[in-house]
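Re: the 251-residue chain
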Amino acid sequence: MTGYLSVQEHFEEKFSLMISVACLFEFVGIATLPLVLQYLIDLFGQQNAIIIFGAILWNLVAAGVAYKPVQRETKGIRVTTESVDRRTHYPKLNNPEENNINTQEKRVTIFVEKYFLSFLSLFLQENFMVFLIIECIMYFIFVSWALFLVSLGISKGFVPGTSGLLIDMRRHRWIPCLCLFGCALIRDLYILAALTFLSGLCQGVNSSGLFGLLPSIVCKYHLPQAAAISAVLEGIVVQLGGLISGMTSFL
């Protein structure tokens, strides 16, 4: 989410284009993480490699939390209390308690009109709900594919730990289309890993295409909100798909 906010802050006019490019590079970066982890394991051993790898990831998390968007230059205007009252149309009553109650009601009304109704109007955009439904189905299928990859590796004669590497190499959202063409005939782990890696690049292009469609579905004022909702929904579906895939292993 920090990445989406930074993209919006620096590329407001080309938000959809830059977020599509960022999504593609995100999947490429994720695909390299298992290779980095394997290199650290070979160099420092499994326990030390996991500690070093975790330290690197937590450092990235801390850097994201510490990120501060660039503040735009604005001209501050000092106003008096009477000017504020005229601007917000707060009624001036002689009774302080009634004045306080009306002020709170006015603030609640402004909050509802500014945030809730604006958020609700996003779902009234044409085809936005269809977009979310298609995204949910697509990511759920990709996550559930992880269960099949483990059983596929075991059926090919790999140990469970080696079969688990297929999940790491494909991540949790990668398209299995290329694997389907070759997995039935190929028994080499490295070729299978290459197929899953290539399918991951395809998924990156696919996700970039999804974000690229948002400007044609929602208006420019709701575009950042739509991107945030899409990203949050993607994470929820990924967790749900992994949960259901794990439950089906006991059936």
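DSSP finds ten helices and no strands in the chain.
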